[in-house]
Design goal:
It comes from Streptomyces griseoincarnatus. This is Restriction endonuclease type IV Mrr domain-containing protein. The chain is an alpha+beta fold. It is 22% helix and 27% strand. Strands 11-12-13-14-15-16 form a six-stranded mixed sheet, with helices on both faces. It has a three-stranded antiparallel sheet with strand order 5-9-8, with no helix packed on it. Strands 7-6-10 form a three-stranded antiparallel sheet, with no helix packed on it. The protein is globular, with a radius of gyration of 18 Å.
Amino acid sequence: MSESLPVRCPACRRSHRYTAQAYPCACGAPVAAPLDPDRVPAAVGERSWHEEWVTVRCGSCGTRGEWPHPELGCPCGTVLRIPVTGEREEAPAAGGPRRSTAPTVPIRTARDAVTAAVLYLRRLGHDDIRRADQRPTSGIGLAGRGVLAQLDPSARRATPRDVECLWLTAMTESAACLYFSLSGYSGEARARADALDVPLFVLEPSGAARPENAPAVALDADADAS
């Protein structure tokens, strides 16, 4: 069972009860970040990708995986980062990206969609994912060493222009690229992505990334084989 502890918002002084969300380990056992009742939650200001992940050991198999840092949104608008006793993620070595267990996270908000996309990119071996320096024409840009991804969490289907802009930006940065969408792609966008060899994925409500074209199927197969 996930841990639970009382939390008071430092901004408005409201009291809350926070329960840590559990994620499935590769072995199938649920894993939740261990909460630290002796530390005070802090309001989230400027975000750092390094601070948004914690490393937690599975109590069943001993595997260490990276999980989203527990947070609580107060009705006053303050986002609280809940203290944990787990280890923080270390930066990847200069020799290249390292692979890690990549669970899925149910998608209820745009933030969940970002988390799901980052987890999939980690499955591909990119553990240095951050917000892209150049904001895309629509959606959210994610970048890592040698990779650029675009996530569209809106209710509209991605267009050929969205795919072309992502491809052009990746070309200028000499990076591979892939596209995540919650609502899918128009027929023209699929055709353009096939021509440019851009992998297209749809993020399902469960958080799983479903390949939508041949380049995506090949990329997904490579991830499974590694």
